[in-house]
Amino acid sequence: MEGESGIKCCRNIEMENCHFIGKYPLWHVDKSIVSNCHFEVSARSAIWYSDMMTMRNSVIDAPKFFREMKDLSLEQVLINDADETFWNIDGLRLKDVTMHQGTYPFMNSRNIYVDGLKCDSLYVFQYCKEVEIHHAEIVTKDSFWECENVTIYDSVIDGEYLAWHSKNVRLVNCHIGGEQPLCYAEGLILENCTFDEKCDRAFEDSDVQADIRGEITEIKNPRSGRIIADEIGKITYDEFAKEPHNCEILLRKS
At CA 173, angle to CA 106 and CA 192, rounded to 5? Predict the structure, then answer.
């Protein structure tokens, strides 16, 4: 499909084996199903203001996809330029989705459920609320900033400055990489998590309950809570530690 704004203000459409070339092809298109379709680089900003959409087995090469939508579901979708994609989505479900490149995907979205995500985009999941993630591999930086009510299971998150200024983030059976993770956080919980050796200055100014398996390189100025680990390379408490600076830090007994 060539041309700009090819399909607008429609309902109950099923699209299969379609090839989209022009800009803005699907705006204000509700209750639609998109299967085995390809969106070229030129089909930018393709799907906005379209509620109750399901997309399966498709390839997206264009940026700025999926904005201002409700009840969006993707399964087996490859997004090769995830720049500014999934903005202001309420009710997002992802199953076995791969995302490459771009910045700020998922900005200001809420009520998100993910099972299977591979992503190397930058600044993912900022300002998101009510998020549940399973089986993700995320290589990024500044992810999950200023988020609320996020739970991540059985995942790898590699990138500096993870979840700064967040509230109620819970990590279960996760591996964490990158510098200065999990700082300035409230209600932070880690269960059975491991850390890469690059993870220095972790938990600064955070309220945290953490069960860490293996070694963590450095814990710096946690505000409150309890941290237990098998090994701790360094504990830093300096004059910049914020009140009540009474976090209990323990080595697990063998």
Answer: 130
Residue 161 three-state SS: coil
**Is this prediction's pTM over 0.85?**
yes
The CA-to-CA distance between both ends of the chain, in Å, stands at: 64
Cis peptide before 244 (omega within 30 of 0): yes
Structure tokens at 9: 């203000």
Q: What is the mean pLDDT of each run of 10 residues along the chain (254 residues)?
A: 69 95 94 97 95 98 97 98 98 98 98 98 98 98 98 98 98 98 98 97 98 97 98 92 92 84
d(CA 253, CA 248): 15
Give me the torsion for CA of 217, 222, 225, 230, rounded to 10°.
10
On whether the CB atoms of residues 57 and 76 are closer than 8 A, the answer is: yes
Q: Quote the tokens at residue 17.
A: 């084996």
The strand pairing partners of 131, in sequence order, are: 112, 150
Amino acid occupying residue 2: E
pLDDT at res. 239: 86
Among residues 164, 250, 149, the alpha carbon closest in space to that of 209 is found at: 250
